[in-house]
Every structure is written in C-alpha cells, then in structure tokens.
Amino acid sequence: MKKLMVGMALTATLATAVTPGFGSIGGNQGKAYAATVTYKVTASKLNVRSGAGTNYGIIGSVVKDQMLSVVSKSGSWYKINYNGRTGYVSSDYVQASGTTTPPAESTTYTVTASTLNVRSGAGTSYASIGSVTKGQKLSVVSKSGSWYKINYNGRTGYVSSDYVQASATASPKLVVDSFKTLGNAQQVILVTADNYDTKSAKIQTFEKVDGKWKQVLTANGVLGQKGFALSKKEGDMESPTGKYTIGTAFGRYENPGTKLPYRKITANDVWVDDSKSSLYNTWQQKPANGRWTSAENMDIPAYDYGFVINYNESRTPGNGSAIFFHVGTNYTAGCTATSKEQVVSILKWLNPEKNPVIIQSPVSELDKY
pTM (2 decimals)? Predict the structure, then answer.
C-alpha cells in the first residue's frame, strides 16, 4: 500500500475570529460586538515570541499565508493563540484579510431598571426613541462615555450604563463536549468529512484545560483517495473510521520537539503490508530475507514527519496496515494527511501524559462517540 503524495504544502486555517481595534466595552478587553477580520502572515517565516517584543524568547514560528487567531494588540505586537499557548507576533508582518463572524464568546448586557429609556444619542439631552424593561438582554455595539450604543428594533439607540449589567454568555458547546467515549483522554484530534466518499477532511484539535474542552487548531486535510471506509481492507484506498490511540511519532529528520516516542526513519525502514507475513502491520528493516513479499518504503517525503495511528493493533490479516497521520495535500492510500507545518505543530502539541486519541468519522456519525 503506497502512500505517495502529490504536493507538500497546504495553507491551513488555524482560526477565524479576531478583534479589530481591540477596544474595551465595560472592561472586557478584546471582546468585539461587530464583524471582525482574520489576519494572514506576510513574511516567509515569522517568529512567535513569549512577549510583545524582540527581547522575549522565541517559542515557535508561523509561515507565509498562515491564518492567525489574534486575541488583542499590544503596541505594535499582536497577541495570538499558538498551539494552546499565548504568543506574540510583530504586526509588521501580518495583514488583515476579510471579515468573519464575531467571536463565539462575547458579553451580553441585562437591563437592571424596571424601565429604561432608549435615546437617539449618548446623553439625556437626546430624545427617547423607546424603552426596555428589567431583565431584557441588549445587543451592545460599543461604549461612549457612560452610554452604551445598542441595536434597538433595527435602529441605533443609546442606554445609560448605570442601568445595565454585563453578564457573560455561556461558551458555545464544542463537538467534543457531547462525546461519551473519551474516557481519560485530555487531547483529541478530530478528523471529519462531509460523507464517506470525499477525500477532503477537516482536522480539529481539542484539549481539556481545567476540566473544560478548548479548541486549539483547525486545518484542512485529506483522506484516502476513496474517502472513509465502512470496513477497512488492505489496499482499498480508504481511511478507517473510529477512535484510536496515538502511536510512535516518526520523521526523516531529527525530533521536531514532540513529547511522543520518536523514531528517525532510515533508508532501510519499511512497514510490512504483506497480509501473509507474520510481521504484517509492523515497522521493520530491509532486507526482507523471505520474511515478507510486500512492504512500504518509509523513506519518502510524505513521511518527513508524522505519527502512527494505532489501527488494527491485533494485526488481523487483510484488515489494513500502515495507517499514519503524515504530510500530504492531495490524497492518501488510507492515511490522514495535512501540511508539514500543521503536522509538526500537532506533533509538538501532543502530550502522551494527556492520553491523546484521534477520532475519524463522517460528520453524520459523530454521535457514535
């Protein structure tokens, strides 16, 4: 089963919602109430630092055209979410690129007065255009002095901040929040497709922090040439569905910084895909010396970096072998792939102490997990 890939680069969308202007409404720094914009890296390589300045240490890097999840602005630096950590990048090397929806988590305001006038401007000298009542939720656009600008029956109105109170909305429910089969897993890689027959996939990573799931990354990916498998078989060009643990990380270069057990590939390394061999679905080294008649060469660009998906650990003959998460942009012969940058990013993020798992499924069948 040969997983030669076409192309090596994939521009992945890490996140969407960021805050223009980074103003403060009612003391909620970085919260936005209007449409926001995404930011794209313009430098070929941009360092991510631990603080807002070149005197801070480098904790990683991003590459040209990569999309960033910006939290706020500090001087001429952007604070970003970087692999589940806080990082900073120079604003000189990123640019705004298009509007998106507002951030999923914002702040709502509740009326505390029995009746509160809505005025045409920010002050009592402006005419009343209507009123709101106690307990009513308001859609706040911005703050002007001690007045909130709101959307009122399709018009712009203003209410006194003395008679409304901020009340944080509940965070939107993530898909992993509904999963019942995660056990003690605190890191999840979720690979989904619209249906069984598509080779295009969405890759998301989630991590449980202080008892709550947080989304870390979103990227585009690819599956087997024929999509997902209902029942995986050797050579079917389909990727297996299911929930699997994470095995050994590998690559043709030195360890990129993963905490997983790491094995550097040599020219003699192969993965046995001969169903009749006693070494079926294991990593071995040439020469075969009669131990197998078919094996996949590991020393190829697709395996510059990756990790083993622990599929068919019982090594049942014919049920599929050499199922990896690796580098690629077109399609695979049964693996899951994304850009090299994203593979490395995920490898660095994975922590075996958090019992990571990977779930692969059509969107319509996520309720199985």
Answer: 0.59
